[in-house]
Every structure is written in C-alpha cells, then in structure tokens.
Design goal:
The chain is mainly beta. The protein contains 13 helices and 67 strands. The strands form 15 sheets. It has a 7-stranded mixed sheet with strand order 20-21-27-28-25-23-22. The longest helix is centred in the middle third of the chain and has 18 residues, at about 535-555. About 45% of the residues are buried.
Length: about 1100
C-alpha cells in the first residue's frame, strides 16, 4: 500500500513549489538557426533507425490564431493514426479525460512536418496548415499532450496546473507568442505533470508570426547545416575552475544563474544519463589537487551521440549554469577528442572533521564517488516508490537516520525549526538514471525479503556513482552493483522477537494492520462498501499470514488494532477472520484470543475502517461491555487559493473503551484504542493553502482537529478510577500538539498556545464554533519518552522517523510499567515487501512478520505488585542489659504476610567487645501467612572489672521475600554490675621528709556511687609523737557527692624540729564511714625521715 505521512494521507509533492530539475534545461542557442530535422536525422545515422514525433512549434496569437507544428525527427515513416493531440485546459488533472482531443491521420515522412491550425486562423497561418480542427482552441494557460496510444511522447505546459494566464520564463511566454523548439532538443517531454519552463526548450518569435511554420522548430527552410565544432584547446577552462571552491561556480556572476559567456572544457565521460538527467558527467583526468574543488561536472545535452560513452574524452562548450543549485555546463557544442579510454576511478567519499554532509557533497559534485564505511552514510528512507518522481529510490543521511523535528521538539519552537533545516540538508538520494521496473533495484540485484533486505540504518558499502543535484537534493546516480555482503546492518538489523515478549504479568500492544479487509474472501460489507485492502485472495492470504506471524511473536495479552475493516463482528467480519487465524496458529488454548465487540455489536460509525480490540481470556477478564468515545466532527465552508468555495466535512473514528480486571487483583485497567485524523486530510484551518503548501508548523493537516480530539479524550477520562492506558495511531509525533495536550503541556511555559479546531460538533451537538486555547495538559505519561527519551519511532515518512503510535498511561499504571518497545518490523523495512503487488512488480514476498504493515507495533509490559509480604523490623531502637544477664529482642513482621520470608542478624561491636558479649549471627524464618514476632536472645558476660557502661548494636540484614524496615538496628547498653560503695585507704605506707610540711593521705571511693559518702580518719603515733612530730590539718574527714568516686586526701602537718632523730612513724586509720563500707586497706603507716645534722648545736642523738 502507499506509504503516507500518517494513515490515509492524500499524496502531494514533497518539494512543493520547487522546479523539478530532471526536466530539460534551458540551452544557449546555437549560432544561426539550425534545422531540428537535419540534426536529428544526422544523429540517427550513427544509431538504429527510429520514428520520433515531436512538438516543434506552438503559435498562440490574436483571436483564433492557434497552430501547432509536429515534426518527424526519426529516420522512419510515422503512422499518424497511432497519435492524438490532447488539450488539458485550466489546470485539468491528467487523471481525468482531456478537455478535447484531436486524432491524427495519415503518415509523416522522415524530416517532414505537420501543421495543425484552427479553421478560423489568419490566412497566413491557414496557407501553411496541413489540417484544421476546431479543437485547436487553446490559450496560454492550457497544456498540450502528444500521445501514441496511451504513451506520452511529448508535452507542452504542465498538466494539472493553472499558471494563471501563461507559463513565463526569461522573456518566453506561452501567451501571445510564437514558440519554436530549439534545434538541440531531440527528445520529448514525457512527464507532462513536471514543472514547465518554456525558455529551456523554446525560442520566442513575435505574436502571430507564422513565418516558421513547416520549417521544423527554429530551423531555417533552406536546409543549411552548422559548421563543425573544433575544440579550442588554448582556451579551455579546467573542470575544477568551473566548479570553484564554493557552492556556486565563480564563472556565474553573483545574483545570476548562468555565465555571461560560453566556456569550453574537456574531461573524460564517467556516466551517460538520459532518464533522471539529460546529458553526461565528465571528470578532469588530472584534477587540481584541491579537495575543496570538485573534479567532476554535469554536462546538460539532449544531443544523441553514440560516441559519447564512459571512458571517451569530450570537449564541450556552452554557458555555465547554476540550475537550481547544480553547477552544470549546457553544451551548445561538443566533440569527442578521444574515442575510448580508462574511466576515472571513483573517489572514496570521506568527510573531514566538522564537515556537514552538504559541504562534503558540494566538493564532490559531478564526480564519481564510492561509499565506504568511513562515509558514515546510513539509510534513512528505505527503497520504495517515490510518488513525486514516479520512480524508485532511497535516501541516505550522515551519522544516523533522521528523526522528525516534531518528534523531538515542540512545533514552531526554534529547536524544531533548526532540526528540520538540519534534516533537509542531511540527505543524499540514491537513484539510477533509468526508471527500473517496479520492485527491481538495479544496483542491488540480490534485493529480496529474506536475505537480501535493506533496513533503515544500513550502510551501503562499495556503492559507486556520479553525484548530481536536483529536486533540491544531492543524488548519487548509481553505476555499479553491490551484493548482500556489502550491506552493513550493524545496530539496525532485524529483531525476530520483541525483547519484551515474555516480560511482566500483562502485555498490551498497539498495532495498525494496514487496511485488513476481507472483501476478496466474501467478508461482510463495511458502511462505505469500498475495499481499501488486498485486491486478490493471494494478497489477502499473504497479508493475514504476515499479521498473524507478527501478533503471535508479539505475545501480547491484549492487542488494540487500527485500520481493520469496519464490517462488524459476525463470522464473516475482518476481526473474526483474524482471530480465527491467530488461534489456529497457536495450539495452546491459553494463547487464544477473543474480540471485544462494539456496544451494539454493529460497525462503529460510518468509515470503512475502525479500531478493534482482542484479548486472551486466560490472562484478563473484561469488566462489563465496551463503550465508545465520540470525537469531534468539523463541518465548515472554506475558500481555496483560487477563491473557489470548499465544503469541509471531516469526521473522526470513535475511540473504543474497555475495562479489564487485573490478573493480580490490582486496580482494574481501562484501555482506550484510538485512531485520530490523518495528516493528509483537509480541514478548515488548512485553507486556503491546502493544495499548495504543507502547514508551516510541520504537524501536517488537521492538527487542530486532532487537538480537539485530545481535549475530548482528556476531559472524558480525567476522573477515571484505576489504571488507564491510551494506545493507538494518533497521527501525531511525540512532541506535537495532540500528544502534549494529553501529557504535560503547560501554556505558561511557552509563547505559542495550542488551539483546538473551529466549527466542530460532538455527537451531533455544537462543540466549538471557534477554536479555543488549551489549558494545562491532562497529565498522562508518554511511556516511550519516559523509558527511551524522544528519539523513538514507529513510522517512517519521507526519510524522517518518529512515533505516530503511542502508549500514554496515567501515573498509577505508569508506576507498574516495566518497559515499552517499538518492534521495528515495518517502519525500517522496504514497503515493497508488504502484501500489495502494486509498484513491487515480480518481487518475491516473505510470510514472516517483517513488512506486515507500515506501522511498527508498540508493546507495553506491565508488572503488577505482589500482595505485601510485610516489613521486618526490630521492635526497639535501644535496650539495656546488666552484666551477666540475657537480653531478648523481638523482630516483628508487619503490613503483610504473603509468602515465606527471612532475615539475618548479627552483632556489631561498639565500646563492648567479645569479652563482654560473644559474636552472634543467625537467620529468622517466617512461613507464608505467619506474622507473629520472633525473638533473638543475646547472653552478656559478667566480670569484676570496673568498666562503666559499654555498647554494641544488633542489626538485621539480607531480608528475603520481604522489606527491611527502617528500624533494623537496636543499640544495646551493657550496664556495669557494681560492688557496694567502698571506702579504703589508697596506700599501705607512705614516706615523708621532716621538712616537707605536709603529708597527704589518699582515700579511694569505689563501687556504687549513687549516694553521697563521708569518711573520718584517726591519727595515732607509733614512735612519732602527736603534737611534736605531726598534727591534723583542719580536720580529719573527706566527702564525696552522689555519683562522685575516686581519690581524695586528708592533710597531716609534719612538724620540722632541730633534733637529730631516727625515722619515726605514725599511722592513719579509718574511724567513721558514712555511705560506704570499709575496703580492704583500712590503715596507712607514715614514716617521717629526719632532716637534722649532727653538727647542729641543738642536735641530739
């Protein structure tokens, strides 16, 4: 099927308004007027005999002065009865019958002319006419087509386009002028719908000038021939000098499109082209060694010359042109200077650091190039039918495939505009000169669906060709062949099964099945009676086989379908047919599907296609019947660019809603399947420019109507309880307005407001007469963006990738989603492998899932939480235990008892160590359903040391099956087991000198210090005498406050006398104690050492 930007899009040219460069180029006239017939006949002598009829003169003058001259440029007699001249007036499309048609009669000899005129033309015109017809009533804005049977052999003007009054170019007009075909033009314009530039192939004569009729175009009537061209070897301009280092030739003045004079150059022919381009490519054999200037050049020429072949050296002369940015030389004169030689080798296309693709290609324009791994060019548009060029091609991009600007950035933002421009400049089209048969890839003859496939992201290593420029893009005109071994799929290859195919408790998929219709197998009728799907039984069976292959590999439990025929739910319906095929392909009944019917069991709405929903009863159970959400319809009157009134009546497919119970007893899931309005439809906001321009915001047509649909969906679902998932083909990329409205749009955060559509109704009632600004988004979560960022895709259009297919979840469901996957079985593939045979010729198809549609399926994996297993926690943050006792700590299982659980425990030492409590580890176990607390016992050692309080920590770790609570540690304090309060003397003996004045007698309090204590001592002489040798100093008591312990002293005065004495003693004894008991040492003996000398007068022994 045709691949469109969004489903069901009306096709229009991609490069709107741009001239098609593969038309014939404007030529510089040869010196004098040379006969078209003489030139054509002379050239024909070098080749096989031919019969060629061409429009050679056109006269559009006063009143009925209308005439057309036809010339036989071939070498054989022309049977005119095979030809007709058709008139398409006022832009009438070629798909319709012509306004009028003139069948020709008789024969026309080689070199002869046939003049057709209006019977009311002037006598001068009628005198030269061979035949008159009232059908010759054209004006300057009408197109003429010369047919041989159904084949177009020549044309004048552009069919399907009304230029206003005339086609005008360079002083040449189709109104009030006589136009004569240039002698250098020897082939017809076979693309009658291509843009028409009259100055390219015609020279102008005055109004009503009939002097040249019968003389074959702009040639003279005397049959004279032009002089032979001689190559001016002393005046040649090398090809690199013509190309220059910039984007245009230095020989073309600024602001102009062609040089002011003719230049001659010489080069070796690398490729001759007559289809995509008209002429040949040449390359300078030596080059200039400057990588900034190309050594190749395209030469435009319509002169048939059998001697111009690859390897021949030619000398050409003509003006240098910048023809829509392609530097070329329009050959007025040429001569072969060397018949045959070596073809210059292709140059590896290798970028330098920081160089853009357009810069790289510009400096190789016209050259033979080769793609190599270092070129870093990958497929961004796969091989398929180009509806604009009516031929097959593909597109390469530098570095990576191109992501659509509005997939990454908000529409109309500076970032989106810059990205769109970047994408436009980052493309290289791969073409062949001749239009190949449908489905044939000339440069890759091994192209097939199984092992010779191409995918987006591939590299085409070894492909060679000439580098041209047309349609505003560089084009590689392939000249060699490559095989499958040269196709590099690295990183982008096929994935046979989605990564999420076995993930989660429930899998939900969205899949656009590309017009799955049962018309050709006797299916029930849809509301329109039309068939948009397979045209034959063989096509249908292939389509169904591929879709079944894809869905079975998806392994989704619920699948939302788009583009399935809207023909109800009977045995002959499309959805019944698909479900029967799916179940037949899966032997396990647990994998079988059923479908969800509409509320009334009838087709949904009036469109030919609808949305559908299938599910596996073994996995989910519907809760109640399905419902529908009606979406807005736009009905309005608009005016097109020509001022003609247009009636707008754009409906939208209703969304299908079904609620399912959770397979794990969790919140129910509400699934909404959507297919919003296509980007190719015509809505009120798209006029008056619908037919001539794409919307500037890059969001395609009918964007405002899709915004209205998003608004209705958001309002309808915003208060829904439970889990919610919106899936489907939204026909909007990831950052386009409808998706932003449903997700995180914030009008306060940007200057551009999102607007809904005008003139809308909802369920038959007025909805919005004028479009309104949207408020904050509805808060759904784009699952693809959450998991993978913005660079995701499910669809490819014109070489750009993005997601048209979405999965949007409310926060409660998003928390349960464990993954989302765009399974790239379709968007990355060539659409020639789809089920349809149109445009694919005899190409063999595959029954596998690849190219089952043009949209990728989207797969969402949901993991429901298990019933709570509980939280394991210690019941105390802190605990005390006295030395010598056992501590019991409880571990609780709270907030759930699902399944078996366990937790390990261990001791972590603090100030306490293994001398205080032994190392302890272990594991506690709870059975399923068990929730009572368990106890950990910790024995604490006892000692007689005075240590004070010490600590350690009991901690839980490595919880299995349950959650470890915040309270997973208990700080344990070991309380020291204290002796009774004890007071004792600290020393058994003490020695003092007689002259040191004082003796301090220490007492020590230990044990229980919780209360105050007091001690009094007695002093008793032994050999020392009380009052002569010692005396108490201010009392004989000491005190300790509560909590106070340790040492305190009683002071004793030591009396220094003059007598020589031996050592003397006294003793200090505990006498009275309060708040303590006597300790082990209750007496201290004090020795007083004498300090007197014998020579002292008072000394004594």
């Amino acid at each position: 099927m045709m691949r469109n930007q969004g489903c069901n899009q009306v096709l229009r040219p991609v490069w709107r308004g741009a001239k098609h460069n593969i038309k014939k180029k404007k030529e510089t006239g040869m010196s004098g007027r040379h006969s078209l017939v003489a030139l054509a006949v002379g050239l024909a002598l070098a080749g096989p005999a031919q019969a060629q009829l061409l429009i050679s003169e056109y006269l559009e003058g006063s009143g009925n002065n209308k005439a057309v001259e036809l010339s036989n440029l071939g070498s054989d007699l022309v049977d005119l009865s095979q030809y007709r001249l058709a008139l398409y007036a006022n832009g009438k499309p070629i798909s319709e019958s012509p306004t009028n048609s003139l069948a020709l009669q008789g024969t026309l000899a080689p070199g002869a002319t046939l003049v057709l005129a209006n019977p009311s033309a002037s006598s001068e015109i009628l005198a030269k006419a061979n035949r008159t017809s009232g059908n010759l009533v054209f004006n300057g804005d009408d197109a003429l087509v010369l047919y041989r049977g159904s084949e177009i052999v020549d044309s004048f003007g552009q069919v399907g386009v009304d230029p206003g009054t005339a086609w005008v170019s360079g002083g040449v007009s189709t109104l009030d002028m006589t136009l004569r075909r240039k002698a250098t033009v020897t082939t017809g314009r076979t693309d009658a719908t291509a843009p028409f530039d009259p100055a390219l192939e015609y020279v102008a004569a005055p109004k009503d000038d009939a002097s040249g009729l019968g003389c074959s175009g702009d040639g003279p009537c005397d049959g004279t021939q032009p002089p032979a061209f001689v190559c001016p070897v002393d005046q040649l301009v090398p090809v690199p000098a013509i190309q220059g280092p910039g984007t245009s030739s230095p020989l073309v003045p600024a602001g102009k499109f062609e040089s002011e004079q003719a230049y001659a150059t010489r080069g070796v022919v690398t490729q001759v082209v007559s289809g995509l381009y008209k002429g040949f490519f040449i390359q300078d054999e030596q080059g200039d060694g400057d990588p900034a200037t190309s050594d190749g050049l395209f030469v435009y020429s319509t002169k048939a010359n059998a001697a111009i072949v690859p390897g021949a050296e030619v000398c050409v002369s003509g003006k240098v042109k910048e023809y829509f940015n392609q530097t070329q030389l329009n050959a007025d004169e040429l001569v072969v200077t060397r018949p045959l030689g070596a073809i210059p080798a292709a140059v590896d296309l290798l970028p330098v650091a920081g160089e853009s693709l357009s810069q790289l290609l510009e400096r190789h324009e016209g050259m033979q190039i080769r793609l190599v791994p270092g070129s870093s060019l990958v497929v961004t548009r796969n091989f398929s039918f180009d509806y604009d060029g009516k031929r097959n091609n593909l597109v390469l991009a530098y570095g990576a495939p191109l992501i659509k600007s509005t997939q990454k950035f908000a529409a109309m933002s500076e970032e989106a505009s810059n990205w769109a421009l970047r994408n436009q400049q980052n493309q290289l089209v791969v073409e062949t000169d001749a239009k190949a048969p449908d489905g044939v890839l000339p440069w890759f003859p091994g192209f097939n669906a199984e092992d010779g496939y191409l995918r987006i992201g591939d590299k085409l290593n070894g492909l060679e060709g000439a580098l041209g420029y047309s349609y505003n893009l560089f084009r590689l005109v392939a000249s060699n062949r490559i095989d499958a071994s040269q196709i590099d799929h690295s990183g982008w290859d096929r994935v046979e099964t989605p990564e999420l195919a076995e993930a989660g408790d429930l899998r939900v998929a969205s899949f656009n099945v590309l017009n799955f219709f049962t018309t050709v197998v006797g299916g029930d009728a849809n509301p329109t009676g039309s068939n948009r799907g397979a045209l034959t039984v063989a096509e249908f069976e292939l389509q169904r086989t591929k879709i079944v292959s894809a869905i079975t590999r998806l392994n989704a439990d619920v699948v939302g379908l788009m583009e399935i025929e809207n023909n109800g739910y009977g045995d002959n319906s499309a959805i019944a047919n698909l479900v029967a095929a799916l179940n037949a392909a899966q032997p396990d009944e647990a994998d079988h599907y059923r479908w969800i019917a509409s509320p009334d069991g009838k087709p949904i709405g009036t469109d030919a296609i609808t949305v559908g929903l299938i599910y596996r009863p073994a996995k989910v159970t519907p809760e109640g019947a399905a419902s529908l959400i009606a979406l807005p319809v736009q009905q309005a009157e608009a005016v097109d660019a020509s001022g003609k009134p247009v009636t707008i009546n754009q409906g939208m497919r209703e969304s299908l809603v079904q609620r399912f119970s959770s397979p794990k007893g969790d919140a129910p899931l509400t699934l909404v399947v959507n297919h919003l309005k296509s980007k190719g439809s015509a809505c009120f906001e798209d006029y008056p420019d619908y037919a001539t321009a794409d919307p500037l915001d890059g969001q395609g047509h009918c964007n405002a109507l899709r915004v209205s649909a998003a608004k209705v969906l958001g309002e309808h679902l915003k208060d829904l309880a439970g889990d919610l998932l919106l899936i489907g083909d939204m026909n909007a990329y990831g950052m386009e307005d409808p998706i932003r409205v449903l997700t995180d749009y914030d009008p306060a955060a940007q200057s551009r407001q999102i607007m809904s559509a005008s003139f809308t109704t909802l369920a038959g009632q007025p909805f919005e007469e004028s479009g309104s600004a949207l408020g904050k988004g509805y808060g759904l979560i784009n699952l693809n963006t959450r998991f993978h960022g913005t660079d995701t895709y499910s669809y490819s259009y014109e070489g750009e990738l993005g997601n048209l297919d979405h999965a949007l979840a409310n926060p409660s469901l998003a928390a349960k989603v464990i993954g989302i996957e765009d399974w790239h079985i379709n968007s990355a593939e060539s659409n020639f492998f789809e089920y349809g045979t149109k445009y694919s010729g005899q190409l063999a198809k595959s029954e596998g899932p690849f190219s089952a549609s043009d949209h990728d399926p989207v797969l969402v994996a949901i993991q429901y939480p298990l019933p709570p297993a509980g939280v394991l926690s210690l019941e105390s943050a802190a605990a005390n235990v006295e030395e010598g006792n056992t501590l019991a700590l409880s571990v609780a299982r709270r907030d759930g008892s699902y399944g078996e659980v366990s937790v390990s425990y261990r001791i972590a030492y603090g100030s306490a160590d293994a001398n205080d409590v032994a190392p302890l580890t272990g594991t506690l176990h709870w059975a399923a359903g068990q929730s009572d607390s368990q106890t950990i016992s910790i024995p604490v050692k006892s000692d007689t040391l005075r240590e004070g309080d010490e600590t350690f920590t009991l901690e839980l770790f490595d919880a299995s099956g349950a959650t470890l609570g915040e309270q997973h540690q208990t700080l344990v304090t070991i309380k020291d087991k204290l002796a009774p309060s004890t007071i004792s003397l600290a020393r058994a003996s003490l020695t003092v000198n007689e002259g040191q004045w004082f003796a301090e007698i220490p007492l020590v309090r230990s044990g229980d210090l919780s209360k105050p204590a007091r001690a009094r001592v007695d002093l008793d002489g032994v050999t020392a005498r009380w009052g002569l040798d010692f005396l108490p100093w201010f009392g004989q008591s000491v005190s300790w406050a509560a909590g106070e312990g340790g040492s305190k002293s009683v002071k004793v005065l030591i009396i220094d006398d003059w007598f020589v004495e031996p050592t003397e003693q006294f003793k200090v004894s505990l006498a009275a104690l309060q708040g303590g008991q006597p300790g082990n040492l209750q007496e201290t003996r004090v020795d007083i050492l004498d300090n007197d000398k014998s020579w002292w007068p008072f000394g004594r022994h």
